[in-house]
Amino acid sequence: MVPFRPVPLVLHDTATKRKRPFEPVTPGHAGLYSCGPTVYSEPHLGHARGPVVFDVLRSWLEHQGYRVRLVTNVTDVGHLTDDADEGEDKLAKRAALERLEPMEVAEKYFWAYFDAMARLNVRRPSVVPRATGHIPEQIELVEDLIAAGLAYERDGSVYFDVGAWSDYGELSGRDPSELVEGTRVEVRGDKKDPRDFALWKRAEPDHLMRWRSPWGEGFPGWHLECSVMSTKYLGDEFDVHGGGLDLIFPHHECELAQARGVGKAFARTWMHWNMMTLDGEKMSKSKGHFVTLAELFEAFEPAVVRFHLLRSHYRSVSEFGEEALLGSRQGLHRLREAYVALVDAADGAEPEPGFADEARAAFAAAMDDDLGTPQAIAALFGLAKEAHRRLPSATPGQAADAAEAFETLLGTVLGVELEGGAQADAGARERLAGLAELVLEQREAARARRDFATADALRDRMTALGIDVEDTPTGPRVRIR
Ligand SMILES: [Zn+2]
Which of 150, 224, 231, 372 has the maximum number of C-beta atoms within 10 A of its C-beta? Predict the structure, then answer.
């Protein structure tokens, strides 16, 4: 472990709209919270960006010697109601095993999500709190908000009284008059103000997930769990809260109001990542214009997907068309080739100072500037180029040093696997070389029996396949392009 040193890291903060230095609440520790998935469908591409960004932030802080606690919640409550077509009576009559058990759905997609994340080499968060596991704490916060005069009960539901909280809108910077639009809180009972949002909802008779509360049987509002679970595991004030841009309002605005309303300072920095597009169009599940991760992994190695995600800055739109991914595959291949060549040249030697320090410094400067992964990757391409230039004269120790830089920066910090693809490629190339050798023998045999037409045809076919045959004084030589 690297000894701890304060880092010059700056992160863009949504609340203040500027980059601010990373100054942790507890020196040497970093507390990160990101809003996780709602587990009721197959994990898709939109699920991947945030976890990859936060995984890299975590690794970068650990690389500086920080102890990081990353908390990512799983929403397994509130969205899982019974199928509308199924009447309440029918449902009640069906055997317990036949009916839709919401936790069964949540469990299935919980694991599907984490399996997909594991394939993307996203490490498991330090804590993965589930909303259903924190009902008493959520009820407690609602009680505290009522006691603070910021919430009121109507007909078994409890609402946050936006009019009583003058800071509402501080995160999103929205004008209070705008806030009525786009509020997607279900209207149930009579709210005092259309901006008010539900903290607790009364369960209708057919609602499957329900808990007892001081206000009757119901379930928590969607925003509540994050205020509760982030502060439970990270403290009343913590370092970074992350989420997709679409979560700023209303979700994060509401989270903030709920926490500040009971006197908790909450997140110091708010990080929001941008959306992804598919062939230039915003991905939308409702329009069927999206890709599940399982589909994507059939076409592309997960490491390529991860590398591709990091090639655009988290605050920029990331384009996920096939062409863009092919470009990333090729780029990663180049880095892996450089790494393999360095490992070969190092031949097990101990690292000694060489030509990698400039790339290390450029990588660090890029990462410290609001997690500039595209520039950090550019530094690695610079190192690959330098390796190509320097390898013929470098000592094994210098090659080992540059290989170590790839392992640490690309492998550990960015979490992109260096092997796998490269090794598979190496195996494939070996077989290809063997095959080329075999064809070459046939060509030589044709030439020996003066069948030049066949010999030339074989050579032309090989050239067309990207295998050049060069006739040298010592015999033919093969080069695979
Ligand atoms: Zn949240």
Answer: 224
Q: Are residues 248 and 359 in the same domain?
A: no
Q: Which residues surround ligand 1, an ion (CB under 5 A)?
A: 35, 226
**CA 228 – ligand 1 centroid, Å:** 10
Q: CA-to-CA distance for 125 and 352, rounded, in angstroms?
A: 35
Least reliable range by pLDDT among 188-192, 356-360, 364-368, 436-440: 188-192
CA of 202 to the centre of ligand 1 (A): 21
pLDDT > 90 in the chain, percent = 66
| 50 CA from centroid of ligand 1 (Å) | 12
Alpha-carbon span 417 to 399, nearest angstrom: 19
| Ligand 1: centre distance to CA 197 (Å) | 15
The first and second tokens of residue 135, run together, are: 């009902």
Is residue 415 located within the same domain as residue 429? no
The rounded Å distance from CA 223 to ligand 1 centre is: 6
Are 237 and 351 members of one domain? no
Give the 3-state secondary structure of residue 266. Answer: strand
Are 311 and 377 in the same domain?
A: yes
CA 300 – ligand 1 centroid, Å: 30
How far apart are the CA of 255 and the centre of ligand 1, in A?
A: 7
Got the DSSP string for 80-132? -PPPTTS-HHHHHHS-TTTS--HHHHHHHHHHHHHHHHHHTTPPPPSB--BGG
Q: Give 450's pLDDT tier (boundaries 50, 70, 90).
A: very high
Checking if the pLDDT of 290 tops 90, the result is no
Q: Tell me phi and psi for residue 21, to 5 degrees.
A: -65, 145
